[in-house]
Structures are given as structure tokens and as C-alpha cells.
Amino acid sequence: MQHQHILVAGGGPVGFLTALGLAQRGIRVTLVEAEPGIVNSPRAMVYHWSVLEGLDKLGLLDDAKQRGFTKQDYCHTVFRTGERIYWSLDPLTDETDYPFNLHLGQNDLAEIARQHLARLPNAEVRFGTRISGVTQDADGVTATLESADGTEELRADWLIGCDGAGSAVREKILKLNFFGITWPERFIATNLRFDLEAHGYARANFMMDDVYGAIIAKIDQTDLWRVTFMEDVNLPLESVRERIHHFYDAYVPGIEDYELVQFSPYRMHQRCVDTMRVGRVVLAGDAAHITNPTGGLGLTSGLFDSFFLVEVMNAIVNDGASTDLLDRYSDERRRAFIELASPQATRNKQRIFHAHEGTWFDRELAEIRKLATDRDAVLGQVRFTRALQSSL
Ligand SMILES: Cc1cc2nc3c(=O)[nH]c(=O)nc-3n(C[C@H](O)[C@H](O)[C@H](O)COP(=O)(O)OP(=O)(O)OC[C@H]3O[C@@H](n4cnc5c(N)ncnc54)[C@H](O)[C@@H]3O)c2cc1C
Fold it and tell me: What mean pLDDT comes out for the span 42-65?
């Protein structure tokens, strides 16, 4: 059984962490990534406290803390009134060894995992290699891989599709339904270099407003910050850059002398695949489910997929467990997304980006205010992400 070979398609954070977890358990792994290197578009950067034990078990946490940083502080701001509600993860100190969040670009996390994977003799990584087809039989899968060297076929025992929101494994190969909705707005994620802490910002902030709603968070120790705001999808894409300053000026009136490092527009969705396992092909991360990013539940869900899938594959490959465990993986991970992560992300989006006066928002605001003074309110809120976890 030990000699099984797993092909991982997609070298985002979920692909690299899954490949690393499998390789650490002695399983032979080949990871193929379509792009020539790790993609560094501005996306996930906040890792909730509840995933940090998983990163630690993989041996990644120390490197990740060194490249990024950990923090407890948050601030919710009501844009129209200027009310600032500061709160902290400090109440978690009594119940976990990881009472903080980690901030780090997801490309950096994937890169750290790549470096650890490179030290293992049973793992191979091929950049510039795209999976375009798969057939499977009772004993394994045969994948078609395309690269600058041409097309080849690779035989493996299992395929794990971690190839992101536009997953070829999900759409073209398995032809699965990706049920859900696409939001009628556009998010603009921007990275800038500027000292926002000097302007009263915590290192993670939610600006609540139906026009100027934003997520504002510090990415690393060099004063690189992420500001993500929302706009009408009908505005021209070509002039996104010209609109960025207007939003920055709303958050720091009179702002100048900042460096706009990077920006990217995104459409947002709440979608989940019908099943995360078809025979010997399994899906994880955004290939299986996608959410709007408010509250950072997208990659969080993907990391919990990855940690659980590594346990499941280890049980099957190394301990001879039934392959039916993969159906349990699919059921539990879909349920965590559909019943917990997706509705919470929708509520988060409503709170931050559609915040205007009215009974609903008044009630939400009353709950948010409690976070500043009530330890139980904080624990109630932040324990939520641990409920997204699955294990054997
Ligand atoms: C603005 C923004 C902010 C976000 N912030 C957060 C956050 O703070 N916290 C959080 O938890 N989540 C956040 N998310 C969500 C997070 O970015 C995603 O959940 C995460 O990228 C999923 O990782 P993944 O590895 O599954 O997919 P991806 O990161 O998309 O990686 C998929 C990889 O597969 C490769 N690929 C594609 N097709 C093929 C193919 N045919 N063959 C081989 N390789 C292929 C791609 O090139 C890519 O490298 C955010 C998203 C956005 C848009």
C-alpha cells in the first residue's frame, strides 16, 4: 500500500499544503501547477487562530510567523459616524496555545510549504504544467498534462484537484455542478505601503458602510497593507486604478505619499460543488467551494479540507482504511461550507458592505459593540471558525 502515488493539481496554498502533508506521511506526491511560479495576486492574508495548530503540525508556523506576524487586535468602524470599536482576541488565551491570528500573503504561505516540500525525496513539483484531462479505472487515474515540452500522460493512484475557483478538474474533467450565486458587485483588492496604524487603525479593520465599506488589514512587518473595497460591477474595469485614490481618501482624509503596490478586481460568489469525490478523483479548496472573502473564510475552509484530506488519505494509503472514508470527507466538508462558512460569509458581507441605518444593522451593531467589553461575546464570535474543522 505504501507505494501509492498521488497527483495534486494546482500549486496554490491548498495544493502545496496538501502535497506537503501527504509527502510527510511517506506518500509519493507529484504536484503540477499551470503557471511558471506561485501566483501572487492579492488574496488571502488572514489566518484565523483555529488553523494555526494545523500549520504548526506541518512544521510551517515558525517560518510563517517570521515572514508575516501574529496579532490579536481588531477594529470595527462605523464609517458615517466615525465610531470605532476596538476589540481583541485576548480572551482566547485561556483556551488555546494559539490565541492570535496570523497575517501573511497566501503566496508566501504556499512558498514556505514549497520550500519544505523540496526537502522531501518522495515529492516532485512541476511548474508550467497544466492538467487537461483524466480517465480513471478501478486501480488509478491517468492524467493528461500539458507543458512547454508537449503533452504527456501520467499514471497515479489518486488525483486531488486543488486547481482553484475555475478548476478544470471540477468543470471540464468531472463536469460537476457548481451550485450557488454570483454577487452583483465587484471587489477591488489593493495592496499599499503606508503607515495606517499612525491614523488610528488596528492591524485588522472592518469599515462598515454601504458605499465605503472596506476590509483594511496589515499584511507584513514592512507597512504593506491590504485595502479591499466594493464597487458597482458596471463601472469600467479599465479605470479601476483611477477610483482607488478616492476610496483611500475616504479612509484617511488628505492621504498622500503612499505607494500603490498592487491591485486586482474580483467577482464574488457563494458556490459549492455537488460532491468532492468522484471515484479516485477528489477536490479541495476553491476547486470545491468559493465564498466572498469578508471575514476570511475561503482559504480557512480550504485549509481545513486539506488537513482532513491528508488524515483520510493517510488512513487509506498507509493504514488500509476503506476508500468510503472519502465519501465522509466529501459530506463533512460540504456541510461545513454550506451550513456554516457560506452563510456566515454572507452575513459578514452584509455587515461590512451593506451597512446602512435600520433595524437589522442596529441589532448587528449592538452585538459588535459587546466585543469591546464582553469576553464571552468575543469567545462566542471567534470560536465559530473552529466549528469549520473536521477530523477522523
Ligand atoms: C480579495 C480576496 C481576499 C481574500 N482573503 C482571504 C482571507 O483573508 N482569508 C481566507 O481564508 N481566504 C481569503 N480569500 C480566499 C482565498 O484567496 C482562496 O480561498 C484561496 O486562494 C484558495 O486557495 P486554493 O489553493 O484552493 O486555490 P488557488 O489559490 O486559486 O490556487 C489554485 C492554483 O491552481 C492552478 N491551476 C488552475 N488550473 C490549473 C490546471 N488546469 N492545472 C494545474 N494548475 C492549475 C492556479 O494557477 C493556482 O495556482 C480571499 C480571496 C480574495 C479574492
Answer: 97
C-alpha cell, 45 = 492574508
Decide: 68 in ligand 1 pocket, CB within 6 A.
no
Which ranges of the chain would DSSP assign to H, the alpha helix? 13-24, 49-57, 61-67, 106-118, 168, 240-251, 298-319, 325-335, 342-353, 359-370, 375-382
**From the CB of 310, is ligand 1 less than 6 Å away?**
no
Which atom of ligand 1 lies closest to the CA of 9? 43
Instruction: Give the per-residue pLDDT at 1.
Output: 47
* Best CATH choice for the domain 5-69+103-179+270-350 from the list 3.50.50.60, 2.40.110.20, 3.30.1360.40, 3.40.50.1260: 3.50.50.60
Residue 28 pLDDT exceeds 70: yes
> Which pTM does this prediction carry?
0.96
Is residue 305 within 6 Å of ligand 1 at its C-beta? no
Interval between CA 299 and ligand 1 midpoint (Å)? 7
